[in-house]
Amino acid sequence: MNTETLASRFKAFSEPVRLRILFLLLKEGELCVCDLVETLALPQSVVSRHLAYLRNHHLVSTRRKGVWIYYQVMHDNSELLLEYLQQNGKENKEMQADLARLKSNKSSQPCS
Fold it and tell me: pTM of the full predicted structure?
């Protein structure tokens, strides 16, 4: 990986909302935008902007099912950083609250 790519990868990890999204995707495997919007209590435009940033930096991939777009983490050269995020997310109160909210929301109202 060249220096520019590496620097952009680190920049992608420098935003708290993107870290929260990545943590949830790491824990759940695949989520649709609606799951993330409801869980993070952020506007759809904000979540979509961060997901686009992550996609453009090859950290997440997408799958379309009807009108829904599902996101998942792409495991590649960033695996060590993602493992670090996953380990630290276990001790992060905000990320753990996001995970609990997601599980609660998914059990009560799954995306159609």
Answer: 0.77
